[in-house]
Amino acid sequence: MRVDIHSHIVPPRYLDVTRESIARTTPRPDLVMQWTPLKSLEIMDAHDIGVGFTSVSVPGLWFGDPAQTRDLATICNDYAARMVADHPKRFRMFAMLPLPDIDGTLREIERACDVLKADGVCMFTNYADTWPNDPRFAPVLEELDRRKAVVFVHPIAPKACAWMAGLRPSAVEYLFDTVRCMTGLIYSGAAKRHPDIRWIFCHAGGALAPMIDRIVRQGAVTPEVREQIPEGPLPYFRKFYYDIATSASPDNLGVLLRHVPVSQILFGLDLPFVSAESTLKGYAESRFSEEEAKAIEHGNAFRLFPRLANL
Questions:
Q1: Cβ contacts of residue 109 below 8 Å, gap of 6+?
Q2: So what's the pLDDT on residue 217?
Q3: Of 58, 54, 68, 72, which Cα lies nearest the Cα of 29?
Q4: Which residues pair with 271 in a beta bridge?
Q5: Distance CA 311, CA 301 (A)
Q6: Options 3.20.20.140, 3.40.50.300, 3.90.180.10, 1.10.10.10; which CATH number does 2-310 get?
Q7: What is the pLDDT of residue 18?
Q8: Where are the beta strands (DSSP E) in the chain?
Q9: Contact 204, 256 (CB under 8 A)
Q10: Handedness of CA 215, 218, 220, 224 (dihedral sign)
Q11: Which of 143, 249, 271, 289 is in Cβ range 3.0-4.6 Å of 282 for a Cys bridge?
């Protein structure tokens, strides 16, 4: 059975706060607003998915008020924990963090990991135009590194990027911000300073596939980067994990796999924001071998999350 690393939830109290933003920013707001755990289970059963790892997607939790963000993190994490308790063999959870509130985030990491037994945490690629490699986030990365945490990173559009008319941010901005987030972690030395964090990036690394050669070449000749990471950026890109959600075609995932081993690729569908077919069609076209398919669909996830063996 497949392990879906990229399965979103939309708790009712979270939807009350974000309904207008979801309607404005998502391609199929009707699917998102009508989501229920039962609908996730129905789609999982239809596509041989045994376990789904839950997280909250865009518009995220940060709307400028730290108290509201802490409340939303609590609401979402308690809801996800109830789903796991109600369906212990079908759901696992990534805990949402109330960033950019550093103290609140450290408290929620402790609660989510030690009390709710989350399997990892979810971060966004940026928070109010501040990216995870920013020095102010160092205490959070230090704690996640200490815990050897899995960090699932979902894209969100930076405020600095104006949307193009008729084009939602998921078409362009999410892809490039994923690359910016990864590159920032590597070039700043944050990925090297926190080697025990296991990072997962969505959508096969966004726009990474056509850009990775350029990024690696720039890192090799830029003195500041060579000083931070004399080994160059490529070992870090090869160490990150990538899910295949909406990005499984040979034109995208195939290019990434020229640089990244199959051992770092995870199955994901991005429900309910897109249809399962938007990933499965490209996945079928990629024509992976039986051994590669087993690794992508469940083997790599079982290695990353040993507790899955107990389900």
A1: 95, 97, 121, 140, 143, 144, 147, 149
A2: 86
A3: 58
A4: 7
A5: 13
A6: 3.20.20.140
A7: 95
A8: 2-8, 49-55, 91-96, 120-124, 150-154, 198-201, 241-243, 265-266
A9: yes
A10: negative
A11: 249
Structure-token pair, residue 216: 């690696």
Strand runs labelled E in 67-196? 91-96, 120-124, 150-154
Tokens standing for residue 297: 């669909």
Q: DSSP secondary-structure letter at 251?
A: T
State the amino acid at position 66 in one-letter form: P
| CA atoms of 52 and 287, how far apart (whole Å) | 23
What is the CB-side half-sphere exposure of residue 284 using CA atoms within 13 A? Answer: 6
The residues, any chain, with a CB within 8 Å of residue 302's CB and separated by 6 or more, are: 3, 308, 309
pLDDT tens sequence for the chain (311 residues): 899 999 999 999 999 999 998 988 787 888 899 999 999 999 999 999 999 999 999 999 999 999 999 999 999 999 999 999 999 999 999 999 999 999 999 999 999 999 999 999 999 999 988 999 999 999 999 999 999 999 999 999 887 665 666 666 666 788 999 999 999 999 999 999 999 999 999 999 999 999 999 998 887 778 888 888 999 999 999 999 999 999 999 999 999 999 999 999 999 999 999 999 999 999 999 999 999 999 999 999 999 999 999 88
The CA dihedral of 168, 174, 176, 177, to the nearest 10 degrees, is 130
SS3 label, residue 148: coil
Strand partners, 121: 95, 151
